[in-house]
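Incident review: delayed structure delivery

Summary: a single-chain prediction request sat in the queue longer than the usual turnaround. Root cause was a stuck worker, restarted by the on-call engineer. No data loss occurred. The affected request and its eventual output are reproduced below so the record is complete for anyone auditing the incident later.

Affected input:
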Amino acid sequence: MKSEETILEKWTQKPFASSLVVILLSLVVYINSLWGNFIWDDIEQIVENPAIKDIGNIPSFFTSDLWRLISNPTIGSYYYRPFFLLSLAVDYNLWELNPFGYHITNLILNALASFLIYQIGRRLFLNSTPAFLGSMLFAVHPVHVESVAWISGRTDPMAALFFLLSFYLYMLFKDGKGFVMLVFSLIIYLFSLLSKEIGITLPLLLLVYELSFKPQAEPKHYRIKYLKVVGVYLIISLVYLYMRALVLGEAIGEFSASPPIEKRIYTSFGVILDYIRIMVLPVNLKLLYDVPLKESIFDLQVISSLLLLCAVFIATLLTYRKDQMVFFAAAWFFITILPVSNIVPLRPTMMAERYLYIPSIGICLLGGLILYRVYQASSSLSPYLNVLIFLSLIILSAITFQRNRLWKDEVTYFAKMAEDAPQNTYAHHNLGETYRKAGNMDNAIKEWQAAIQLYPLHPEANNSLANVALMQGNYPEAVRRYKIAIQGRPENPESHYNIALALERLGDADEAISHYREFIRRASPKYQDIIEQVAAKLRAHDIDKGQHEGK
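Output delivered after worker restart:
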């Protein structure tokens, strides 16, 4: 029995072979995602996005928020991700609108992230075997499908790649590989921040790393030196936050206003526990998690979730003195989950599998460490453990391979989303839009009506039904629904343009003109042809009005 264990350990001590296996497996399990189409945000962020189609626009990626640049100059968001847009621009330059190429980029990012997890694990555990097992768990875990199979989900693998590389270079710096490693680590940390906001947890992770793995014989002034080094990462974080605030402006306050933070926190207790559950037991995975907002701390579910979460957190703290490796791997999860724990409001959902991409690294490394220690402690059971580990990786790979198919096209994707969250108006509206694009108007109308039944003031569903009424010549109904839609989303230029058309048909020229002006004020460059037509109409109206007033 011992010989089998030795064979496994000897094999995993070969870094090149182990790295190659991790990379190849991470590519193989996602191979069928390469034939997926553009879906959901891909349409606006890639297909209909003029910004990525001209290299001359690259400087604007760093001076505008994501959605204002893409869709509408009057709509702000709190997403500042210039490197994400830069990656899309590079892909467009290589592949134009062939989604196959964009998927290749996603797979490469994920494979490199898996490789870096293996390298980091080797230095954390001073052993290749648990590092290999942990990186394999990460490479095949189905909770990462959304981030890899969905093109627009690449913000997480991209941020993770820079996050991990910065962390790894810091480890090399600590191991005496030269000051240049620190310089590159700091630069690449900024790259992570410019890919996605979750990168901002790295300084805290480095601080915990320093506290967890400080040598007992290390002089106090050396520890202070490294804590000062971590402070440089904090300075970069502050510079980034200041730069981000300048770019985003008022959008930050608008997004953080509702729902109340205390209710988001009450809800987050159960969400974090659910994240742990789907990492340990990846069943009942969903494209959309319809999480109800918890209203009170005295809710039984809130209390039970809080108590259980506290128990897990306290157990983690208790490992600090006894087992720093276990402590740090568990702390990785708790630290990196903070930005997506609803302290900052998350839209359109409070829980999503893509939010787990970086936090899951800690759980995967912890899983690899536990499997290795069980393997070491039970040499008589090692053949069975070999089979168990192999079967577990096969099952996880199969689930991942199967779930990749959900990102095949929009009909498949949104139908599954509506199935996962039948009470979610967002899911029904999007499925309706998908049916509309496919020319299936009967099913489209049914889905929009389902959204309206769940939420009568739903702006997008009302806008879609108003469009149907406009095409059918039912102008009073069109105006009624457009007004509901505009009340909910006054920034939507299409609603203003279409209600103006309906009002003209009804003979209400003055109100129509007011909506045409709103359209001009809010329309993005993608409406340039319509903007010119409306501008000409407004000029004619103003001239006509001036002539009448002159008489």
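Verification: Confidence is low (pLDDT under 50) at residues 1-6.
Action items: add queue-age alerting; document worker restart procedure.
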